[in-house]
Design brief:
Trna Endonuclease, Chain: A, domain 1, 2 helices, alpha+beta, about 30% helix
Length: about 120
């Protein structure tokens, strides 16, 4: 079993991995861990066409529940509320897109990440 500190650390490392993944594909990362009364969104980025809200799910390889499967209607609504709050504070002429990044690893001690990136996940 992993400690809460290890789990938090691996989650942050997964988010940083996805931010680098996005930058390497030409997106500009605007904000990581944007917080509002509705909660927190992991990554906000933009490309030429969209402002992209990314939910990152970091899991050990072969989890019981895939990260993307854990995004239920309540979580989708929370992310929509967060995106509206962000866009009210920092206006953008670009339409939003909602992506999910599922990051997997084998060993928390020495994680080697793999990514499945789903554009327009919802």
């Amino acid at each position: 079993m992993y400690t809460e500190k290890e789990i938090t650390g691996i989650g942050k490392a997964g988010e940083d991995f996805v931010a680098d993944y996005l930058r390497n594909r030409g997106l500009i990362v605007i904000k990581q861990n944007f917080s509002s009364p509705y909660g927190e969104i992991d990554i906000i980025a933009e490309d030429d066409n969209y402002i992209v809200f990314v939910e990152v799910k970091t899991r050990k390889i072969d989890p019981l529940v895939k990260g993307v499967e854990s995004i239920n209607p309540a979580k989708i609504q929370r992310i929509m509320n967060l995106s509206n709050d962000f866009l009210n504070k920092f206006s953008s002429s670009k339409p939003p897109r909602f992506d999910v990044a599922e990051v997997t690893y084998k060993d928390v001690e020495k994680p080697e990440f793999q990514i499945e990136y789903i554009e327009s996940a919802f």
